[in-house]
Amino acid sequence: MMTYGQGWVLSVPEALVEKAEASCNRKSFAEIAREGDGQQELWFVRGARDEERATVRNVANYEPLSTVAESLKVSVWSHYFHWYCDAASWSGRPTGAYVRLIQKEDQDVWGQWLRWPGPSWGLSSKSSDTYEAFGYVLDGRLVSVAQVVLGPEDFAWDFGVYTMPEFRGRGFAVEACRAATESIIGHGRVPWYYYNHYNTPSSRLPRKLGYFLYSEALVSHGG
User: Fold this and answer.
1) What is the reported pTM?
2) What is the SS3 assignment for 33?
3) Domain of 165?
4) pLDDT tens, per residue, the chain with 223 residues
5) 52 and 8, same structural domain?
6) How many Å apart are CA 215 and CA 2, to the nearest integer?
7) Residue 149, strand partner residues
8) Is 183 helix (H, G, I), strand (E, B) or coil?
9) Does 217 map to a domain?
10) How far apart are alpha carbons 47 and 218 in whole angstroms?
């Protein structure tokens, strides 16, 4: 299910169209998202107990979508916000000497990248053919990395960012993401950024970078 600000659209198998119409037509996107959002916040933000987490994990918890999808073995839902950058209105500024493209030639930083504790293409790919990673280096230490997945056939390239916990809240992620945005635009692609609704730190980044909200979506994942 996706909304672009007014109304919503829902994609289901043809056999479930009537069921979807009966379950969803009188509800807004916000109403459908509300219950599941609360359960996910219990799990991810407030630190639910193990028995509470098990309950959330095993329930497709966005009603009435979970009712529509009960025959599809859906076990997980995500509430995503999708943002994009318009190259014509992008007013990027220099990121400064602290941010750099992570390359093998920069042996110390490259070594830190291969040992990176957060999500990392560097751990699974020893070359940079499938990604670009931009690191914020503070006093020789890699503290934040924004990485772009290179999809040659895709018109929009998305990226993610991870900052070491002790360095969060100091603007390092914004600068790393600024470099990622500049690179994507330089490749002639549309910068694309998304996050789950409960990820408050990530929700601040696109606004600070001047991105535009494109859509919200409730996405199902098979079990």
Assistant:
1) 0.84
2) helix
3) 87-211
4) 999 988 999 999 999 999 999 999 889 999 989 878 877 777 666 655 555 555 554 444 687 888 888 888 776 788 999 999 999 888 777 677 799 999 989 999 999 998 898 877 655 555 556 789 999 999 999 999 999 988 878 899 999 999 999 999 999 999 999 999 999 999 999 999 999 998 888 999 999 999 999 999 999 876 5
5) yes
6) 7
7) 131
8) helix
9) no
10) 22
